Amino acid sequence: MMDLIENFLLNTVRSGTPIMFALMGDMIGQRAGHISLSVEGAMLTGCLVGFTTCYYTDSLLLAVLFAALAGAFVGFLQIHFNIRCGADMFALALAINYFCSAITNYFGASMVSKSIRGFSRIAIPGLSRIPVIGDAVFHQDILTYCSYLLPLVVGFVLFKTKLGVALRTAGEMHQVGVAYGYNIKRLKYGAVIAAGVLAAIGGVQLACAYTMTWTSDMSGGRGFIASALVILCSWKPKRAYMAAYLFGAAQSLQILFQLLAVPIPTNIVTMAPYVVTLVALAFISMNRNPSMPEELKKIGRPLEILN
User: Fold this and answer.
1) What is the pLDDT of residue 302?
2) Which residue in 53, 106, 231, 292 has its CB near the most CB atoms, within 10 A?
């Protein structure tokens, strides 16, 4: 039984880590008043670019770097066409995601069934020997360890730095930001591009640390789920721990039920993470005092930025 619990916790952490990166990325974008729905495409692109780079160069550092650049490009496409060309935020994000799906399927066809030597797990001396949670939490790859710190870093930047004040001003009332001399366009560009970078790094973790393989559309909607979980977190970074690992736990139920030979149809178990997300969102929507950035409430209206 203890082995089953340890295995469940291990898969919870590993399943929740890619979500953590995408979630924190989109939270930055939403705090700046822009929903980065293209994080799904950025994560998928990061999966392929990271996996392919690792396969041909055997360099994990280059895999992360090139994937981050690819994610930045995806984020740039969304914010550029939205602000410069006035394209609808949601229609544009869907188009970008379908584009990323098509292009990764095309260029990734030759990478299916390939194998790589990805990120290895690193045990933290002492902590990895803690009963039950030690192996699951403190015997992970370097990107997972980075994900542990990510909400703290993002929270510090958003709420303790001048840059964070400027970003949140862009998301609350950009006219005030203009009055204070902030360049709102640059802030929004930076926030959405950062969202793409983090989502792509999550894709690298998924392909080069979790599965060690590439399959078509392997992100499996994790980017969309991450955008939804930002709402579950009430746009507060530290709540990302709860949201990401809640999804990870729901996803790891598939493996647990298989090990226990529970007679539940596979399709039903596969739906569990998405059902849990919907239920959690329904629950949080009953909150009468949501902390949604004011600019997000204006989505659908013409975007007017003065500088």
Assistant:
1) 42
2) 53
97: domain range? 2-111+132-298
Return d(Cα 172, Cα 294) in angstroms, integer.
5
Cα–Cα distances in Å, from 46 out to 101, 107, 120, 196, 234? Answer: 12, 13, 19, 9, 27
CATH of the domain at 46: 1.10.3470
For residues 139 and 14, the answer to whether their CB atoms sit within 8 Å is no
Count: domains in the chain: 1
Q: What is d(CA 207, CA 105) in angstroms, rounded to the nearest whole number?
A: 15
- By CB atoms closer than 10 A (0-12, 13-18, 19+), residue 282 is exposed
Whether residue 106 is contained in a domain is answered as yes
Residues of the chain falling short of pLDDT 50: 301-303, 306-307
Residue type, 58: D
